Known about the structure:
The protein is built from ten helices and eight strands. By secondary structure, it is an alpha/beta fold. The chain has a single domain (about 1-10, about 25-300), classed as 3-Layer(aba) Sandwich (Arginase, Chain A). An eight-stranded parallel beta sheet has the order 2-1-3-8-7-4-5-6, with helices on both faces. α9 links the parallel β7 (about 225-230) and β8. α1 (about 25-35) packs across α10 and α5 crosses α6. It is globular, with a radius of gyration of 17 Å. The protein starts with a strand and ends in a 6-residue tail after the last helix.
Amino acid sequence: MLPLVYHDIYSNFPLPDGHRYPLQKYQLLKTFIEQQQWPVQSFEPTVLCSDKLKAIHHVDYVDALISGNLPLVKMRRIGFPWTPALIQRSLTSLGGTTLTVDKAIEHGVAIHLTGGYHHAHFDFGSGFCLFNDLILAANHALSYPEIEKVLIVDCDVHQGDGTATLAQDRSDIVTLSVHCDKNFPSRKPESDIDLPMPIGTDSDKYLREFIPCLTLALAQHQPDMVIYDAGVDIHTDDELGYMSVCQSGIAQRDNAVFEACKAHQIPVAAVIGGGYRTEQTALVPLHAELVRAALNTYYPHTEI
Ligand SMILES: [Zn+2]
């Protein structure tokens, strides 16, 4: 059974009307997966202890954000109004991240039905990201004695700027970001490997460039663990994406990542990442490709 990590709180915190964050997609995705009767097993995370965040972020930033004392201008950069429920949701999803890593190491693969907070930096958050779950996942994986190097493969359409800066002095965390070159964030600090794509990139070009890049990264760095951000905001109809990848292209991308990790016997913890549509039900089949790809790769004899 494929391990999935999910909590009802992911779609349950108050946002102002018309807010662009796709709050409902997590619940919609979970329900869709249940309806498919796929061989999956759900695990519910608990709240992460904030001490683990202080190994990544500035202590004052962690304390101020959790206690509701972050200056308004810094909250605006994150893009959410501060509420206790927002913090509870964030810390629960971060607990989900570490649980997903545990399950991936145990089973070879696990999927977190939220995550991908790659715009969170050392002492500030931005772009709907409070704390950086990808770096947290890498750090958590590195606490296992058999894991000495982690590769973060970030395929969200937005560049992983926070991840890049947080890992810049780390030899045990390698960052790969494939993203749209003319999209948020405007300033793009260097990842270990950046693969910028122009506006309008289609599935063929995307896969033609990404798959060899991934193959090379795995060969050069020989990671013991992969953290995979499978953002679907590369889709042609995404409202924040500017790229032109189709659903089949997303499926092929997700399959390629899992196939490569399985071939190298590298455990992979995947997060669903970004995906922005006013009609949030349209995001569900796109994110579900990640689950389908994991089932195809790791559980090939099951009916899906
Ligand atoms: Zn994104």
